[in-house]
Design brief:
about 110 residues, 2 domains, about 85% helix
C-alpha cells in the first residue's frame, strides 16, 4: 500500500513541478514582451512623458519642469541651448518663462 501511495505522491509532485515550470515560462514570456514594448522609441518617450487623460501645452510644460527637477542636466542643456540661440531675446525668454512658471504655480495651488 505504501508503494502505491508513494508512487501517486511522486506523480503528483512531478505534475505540480511541471505546472509551476509552465507558469514561470508564461511569466517570463510576458516579461520579455513588456520589455520589448518598453524599449521601442515610443515606449522610451512614454517613460519620460507618460500618457494622461489630457495633454495640453501647459501640462507638457509642467512635465518638462518636473523632469528638469528630476534630471538637472536636462535643465542645464536647455538653458545652454536657449542662451546661445536667443541672446538678443534673452530678456523676453526670461519674462515668458517667469510668466509660465507663475501661471503653473497658481494653477497647481488652486487644485
Amino acid at each position: 500500500m505504501s508503494r502505491l501511495s508513494s508512487g501517486r505522491d511522486r506523480a503528483v509532485r512531478i505534475e505540480l513541478l511541471r505546472a509551476r515550470a509552465a507558469i514561470e515560462r508564461q511569466g517570463m514570456a510576458r516579461g520579455l514582451r513588456q520589455l520589448g514594448d518598453s524599449l521601442t522609441p515610443r515606449g522610451l518617450l512614454e517613460s519620460f512623458f507618460p500618457r494622461s487623460r489630457r495633454t495640453s501645452p501647459s501640462d507638457l510644460l509642467l512635465r518638462a519642469f518636473t523632469m528638469s527637477r528630476r534630471y538637472p542636466m536636462v535643465l542645464s542643456l536647455g538653458s545652454a541651448l536657449l542662451s546661445t540661440a536667443a541672446r538678443r531675446r534673452l530678456r523676453w525668454w526670461k519674462l515668458a518663462a517667469g510668466a509660465v512658471l507663475a501661471w503653473q504655480m497658481s494653477r497647481n495651488l488652486r487644485r
